[in-house]
Amino acid sequence: MADKPKKGLADVVAASTALSDIDGQAGRLFYRGYDIHDLAGRTTFEETAHLLQCGSLPTGEQLAAYGTELVRGRKLGTLAEANIPEIAEKQAPMEALRTLVSLAGGDDPDKDSNSPEANLRKAARLTAQQPILVARYHAARTGTTIADPDPELSIAANFLLQITGRTPGEHEVGIFDACLVLHADHTMNASTFAARVCAATLSDMHSAIVAAIGTLKGPLHGGANEQVMRTLESLDPSAVAQSVRDRLAAGEKIMGFGHRVYKTEDPRATHLRKMSQELAEASGDDKYYRMSKEMEEVVFETKGLYPNVDFYAATVYHYLGIPTDLFTPVFSVSRMSGWTAHVIEQHADNRLIRPDSEYIGERDQKWKPIAER
User: Fold this and answer.
1) What per-residue confidence (pLDDT) applies to 1?
2) Mean pLDDT of the chain
3) How far apart are CA 268 and CA 20, in angstroms?
4) Is 35 helix (H, G, I), strand (E, B) or coil?
5) Is 160 helix (H, G, I), strand (E, B) or coil?
6) What is the pLDDT of residue 14?
7) Helix, strand or coil for residue 241?
8) What's phi and psi for 272, nearest 5 deg?
């Protein structure tokens, strides 16, 4: 008798990749062989994007050339530019990004080519434009005006400047840059798999990224960090432990805990916890950090679950001044580097992804005329 299919494709190897790897038992994450603990806080997001998309950590000369390409790629085309106001009026953040990336595909000068060279150029443009799209969307919906991105500033610094309207401090930029590095890629997660399935049909990169964004939009994938913040805001700071115990006893899921792959602490959470503490102390209001620590202790004591990447990312983004409903779009800003790298990798050694299915419906049904049904 054939084995039953694994629900959700658990433990099924769907592709070979040289981009990232996870050791779930040891709680380790690697980008092209580099441990995330070696990269976070040491390697800029631009260097990490180059590592994923181009295959290596850049030399100084390569980084300068890649940086020039990113700066040039930030300029939005006429389709996306013209439609931002109406999209901001009618669509929620992730819906808006799905639409805007699709429009950006129509603007892209390489839209009709899937060549390796064209894909690399499109990957750089998408990586450069995603933070601009998030910031422009937010400005349009709030009726504010933002300055054009400063070519002398990094992606992290420009994004914080455009979202908050103030020049960020060096420490804030460093922390947000490390956040982008930590979220850049994560093996065959749902949105990456969606992008590769689309790319495997030999569809274009923008179509594959739209598929990824649509998948990230789902609350079981990209929305957890926002839900963590909503939960913290709903709790009485003086009764966190009891509230969490009551919710768990009632069968409620506390977002930001547990992971499909990691059997110990998510290595990204290790960094984000420290960042949250540093930002809380610098802000002079550590309420949400203290609440998070108490939640972490209660959930581990009650369920034995460790925090995942989403849990402390919520308070980090909050302390950086990022609106809560933009937390998932910020995820897409970072993950764009990984998604595009996966599309490049899929196109380089392609085979249509077409899994089988197990039929569980009725058999040998007999047709009857409509009057007899």
Assistant:
1) 43
2) 95
3) 14
4) strand
5) helix
6) 76
7) helix
8) -65, -35
- In whole angstroms, give the CA distance from residue 274 to residue 36: 15
Tokens 């950590």 belong to residue: 57
Looking at this protein, which amino acid is placed at residue 311? Answer: F
Place of tokens 């274009």: 204
Say how far apart CA 202 and CA 200 lie, in whole Å. 5
For 164, the token pair is 């908050």
Token reading at 187: 């093996």
Q: State the amino acid at position 137 in one-letter form.
A: Y
- Confidence class of residue 298 from pLDDT cuts 50, 70 and 90? very high
For residue 203, the 8-state DSSP code is -
Q: What is the pLDDT of residues 57-66, one digit of tens each?
A: 999 999 999 9
Residue written as token pair 């930002």 = 279
Q: Which amino acid is at 42?
A: R
User: Does the pLDDT value for residue 153 go beyond 60?
Assistant: yes
SS3 content of the chain, % helix, strand, coil (to 5): 60, 5, 35
Rounded Cα distance between 45 and 41, Å, is 10
pLDDT tens digits for 194-220?
999 999 999 999 999 999 999 999 888
The residues annotated as belonging to the active site are 221, 259, 310
The region, left, alpha or beta by phi > 0 then psi within -120 to 50, assigned to residue 304 is: left
The enclosing H or E element of 327 equals helix 327-348
